[in-house]
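#struct-help
A.M.: can someone run this one for me? Single chain, 388 residues.
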Amino acid sequence: MTKKILLLGAGELGKEFVIAMKRLGQYVVAVDAYDHAPAMQVADEREVINMLNGDELDRLVEKHKPDLIVPEVEAIRTERLYAYEKEGYTVVPSAKATNYTMNRRSIRDLAAEELKLKTAKYTYASSLEELERGIETIGMPCVIKPLMSSSGKGQSVIKTESDIRAAWDYSQQGRAGKSDVIIEAFVDFHTEITVLTVTQYAGDTLFCPAIEHRQARGDYQESWQPSRVSEADFKTACQMADEVTQALGGAGIWGVEFFVADDGVYFSELSPRPHDTGMTTMVTQNLSEFELHARAVLGLPIPEIKLEKVGASHVILATDESMEQPTYSGIETALKNPNVEVRIFGKPVTRKYRRMGVALCGLPLGSDVNEARRQAEEAAGEVKVNDL
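D.P.: on it. Structure tokens below:
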């Protein structure tokens, strides 16, 4: 049966989700704050609104009467989603999940206080003065993040007192505007992983093999499967992911992030949607994170999740500001490697360090994952944005 999906957020992850939905015969309306966003380019219809404006959201829901409302970004008036559920609409994975995970305070308090999961020591601040007091409590080094943000936007590591003011100013520039912040003790981790977790309307919760990843400037740079975490640490992470996703409810894929340190596994964050680091699954698994999300929200069977290749994903970044349609060179050189795929997102403008695409490398099972990382990075380096 064809369903109408209202996709709230039309970035690169939304684009791959729309493609997965279209392959299953679904009808998608892609929504974002700017026109020609990546997912709009493959959707059936598009809408441009400020999703922080609840009245505009109400208007779209009334206009399209979707079977499924699928939030894909954090800059949404999330409390409106509860009203839509009361009116009979299905929110993916649920209004509670979206509302909690779009606000770091809610999800951290749920994980640490209610579920008693292991997390870094933390506190909150709503002003520069509170931030300074919070850092005295937590100690340095520490990390601050806006409560209403994701993908590293507005995140800083504070090592000395001279870092505090700049970190506060940066935290207030996120997509959702001014925001309280969470202050976290710095975890001396050796590995950072995402466990993609699939909850179903009927059926067991499923877990993808752990994805290891690396960040720079607080933002995702590369990811790879398989990870180097031990089986015991992976099992602990899966147990934590199961607890928190069951507490939030609903069906779909979740990107659950963990730090793995010498003293154990720490819950870090949770996204109730496909995850940046999961783009590597487009070359590693029998079903990518986007196909898994589509099947889960439609209630379709997922017989198994299988790692079919060793693989890595590496970002292709813009190096300048541009109001023009971006141009790309070097794709033909990157694709001379038979193990490589290139995905250009189709974003209409560039900003410095903005992710414009990814290079993916898949190698036979048993291969050295570091070789997949090397080839993906090399391919990404061949692709130049606005370099004529």
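A.M.: thanks! The chain has twelve helices and 20 strands.
D.P.: also worth noting: The two ends are 47 Å apart (CA to CA).
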